[in-house]
Amino acid sequence: MAAKTRVYLAGDYGAESGRVMAGAFDGRRLALSEIHRFPNEPVRLPDGLHWDALRLFHELKNGARAAIRAHGRAAVSLGVDTWGVDFGLLDRSGALLGNPWHYRDRRTDGMMERALRRVSREEIYRRTGIQFMHVNTLYQLFTMARARDPQLAAADTLLFMPDLFHYWLTGRRANEWTIASTSQCADPVRKAWSRPLLARLGLDARLFAEIIEPGTPLGPLRPEVAAELGAAHLNVVAPAGHDTASAVIGAPLAGAGDAYISSGTWSLMGLETARPVISAESLAANFTNEGGAFGTTRLLKNIMGLWIVQECRRAWKAAGTDFDYASLTAMAAKAPPFTALVDVADPVFFPPDGMPERIARHCRALRQKPPADPGAVVRAVLEGLALSYRETLGRLERAAGVRIERIRIIGGGSQNELLNQFTADATGREVVAGPVEATAAGNVLMQMYADGRIASLAEGREIVRRSFPMKTFEPRDTAAWDAAAARLAELRENRR
Fold first, then answer.
1. Spatial CA neighbour of 220 closest among 326, 27, 78
2. Distance between CA 11 and CA 444 in Å, rounded?
3. CB 38 within 8 A of CB 18
4. Among 345, 415, 329, 335, which residue's Cα sits nearest to residue 371?
5. Under DSSP, is residue 43 helix (H, G, I), strand (E, B) or coil?
6. Integer Cα distance of 166 and 420 in angstroms
7. C-alpha closest to that of 415 among 374, 473, 345
8. With pLDDT > 70 as the criterion, what percentage of the chain qualifies?
9. pTM given for the model
10. Coil, helix or strand for 142?
11. Angle between helices 325-334 and 417-427 (to 10 degrees)
12. Would you call 318 exposed, middle or buried from its count of C-beta atoms within 10 A (0-12, 13-18, 19+)?
């Protein structure tokens, strides 16, 4: 390793797995390597579905320890990104009050609708600019307040998941802006907690910590953690704590004509804008305005994503057939096109378990014959995703007043070349896939910013362009996709 190379450690947690990555920057190119990977499986307890936060922190330390052994003092900092909306509550002494809830727990069912009886949809959107989803932090807290949850009564500080891990590493309590912005509790214009909204819903804004920007140094490791890892020299930096925010930083966007899809368990499709877009058009489309790096906003839509395929695979494995993703995609490529149209926005797909049966039930509700085998099921889901991207693209163009020329697909889902081609065909736009590790790259870039190695977002993205391979997909049979989109719209209308 060259003497000038510096290494930055990224703890990156998705909804299915977590890993610790090492990003080595030699002054020109960034090289990423996986140090440690581990499952991130929810735990069902008598009271509901939770994250195993202690295990996740333990695995973060295991990965950091292995990285220090591999890179020594060349490793200069560590930062964590995770999924959004979930949180831990600390008491006055800093102890965690219970296991953090999993956003797919059913306790929030119907709670968004109850909250909207107190405060109108228009007012909540005007104050927060955030997409309405019953999993949002706002409705999780509203649920706890209505139930007079003793944890909420005893809580002193709310920390979102990356904030919680950073607190355990350093002892500093803070809410990083990109993860805080997902909560529907913050004002995206003022970058402050929306105290009037919280008060209307009976929530105490004092729970929240100070808001900090991505790229903020949080300090050294706590002495006991430094001793445990053998890393007294390691500093902790808050990257963009929301994994999608980190992924967008790592996306080599080239102007207003570029949209992105962060493709994984969720598909997050959007644009990077200079300011929030809070309008009747964006509200009608249920777009979200989440915080980005360097003062940007992520105008985007949460789309169900590859979760549906992941859950099908899990169900088939439980039934005795363990397909890998490559095999499922190969079978889907050979299946006939458009045998059944799947509306991936249907809420039936949100809960875990029994996904193949959910798909069959959905198809019958739309008066279609369900797909007959795993290959046909996966193809129908991938086609449904591409059709959802097509619809979202049109709405993004109208809300932002721009023409989208190119779609950049980043993240693990960018390896699915069949979905990439479907996306190009369905939207009629050029698709550029990569980098696969956009989230880890974006996490590392903000640590490099804190370290003085880059001075701007543009500089970081130029490093990404010269560091990672990408592949382009051009539109092909767009007429067939036009017909499929029209047919899906008709099926939806008939269902009403």
1. 78
2. 10
3. yes
4. 335
5. strand
6. 35
7. 473
8. 99
9. 0.93
10. helix
11. 40
12. exposed
Q: Are strands 288-291 and 297-303 parallel, antiparallel or unpaired?
A: antiparallel
Alpha-carbon distance of 407 to 379, in angstroms, equals 21
**Collapsed DSSP state (helix, strand, coil) of residue 55:** helix
Phi, psi of 177 (to 5 degrees): -60, -45
Q: Which of 180, 163, 173, 43 is nearest to 104 (CA)?
A: 43
Other Cβ atoms closer than 10 A to 367: 9
Q: For residues 250 and 21, is the Cβ–Cβ distance under 8 A? A: no
- Rounded distance, CA 93 to CA 91, Å? 5
CA atoms within a 13 Å half-sphere pointing along the CA-CB vector of 124? 25
Structure tokens at 427: 């939207």
In 250-324, alpha helices (H): 280-284, 307-318
Whether 359 and 368 have beta carbons less than 8 Å apart is answered as no
- Is 243 a residue of the active site? yes
- 274, 252 Cβ separation under 8 angstroms: no
Element (H, E) at 178: helix 177-180
**Residue 82 in tokens:** 């995770």
Half-sphere exposure of 97 (CA within 13 A, CB side): 18
The answer to whether 24 touches 453, Cβ cutoff 8 Å, is no
Helix (H, G, I), strand (E, B) or coil at 37: strand
Query: What does the block give as tokens for 185?
Result: 């509790």
Q: Provide the strand spans (E) within 370-455.
A: 406-410, 430-433
Q: How far apart are CA 342 and CA 375, in angstroms?
A: 14
Mean pLDDT in the chain? 96
The residues pairing with 263 across neighbouring beta strands, listed in sequence order, are 267
For residue range 16-59, what is the model confidence (pLDDT) as tens digits?
899 999 999 999 999 999 999 999 999 999 999 999 999 999 99
Give the separation between CA 127 and CA 187, rounded to whole angstroms.
6
Structure tokens at 213: 């920007």
Catalytic residue among 12, 163, 187, 243: 243
Angle in degrees, CA 454, 455, 458, rounded to 5? 85
The single-letter code of the amino acid at 159 is L
> Which of 454, 466, 398 lies closest to 239 in space, CA to CA?
454
Question: What values do phi and psi take at 187, rounded to 5?
Answer: -90, 115
User: Residues 447-490: pLDDT tens digits?
Assistant: 999 999 999 999 999 999 999 999 999 999 899 999 999 999 99
Length of the chain: 496
Tokens of 379: 């193809």
User: Would you state the structure tokens that stand for residue 126, as one six-digit string?
Assistant: 């005007």
In which residue are the tokens 């907690």 written? 193
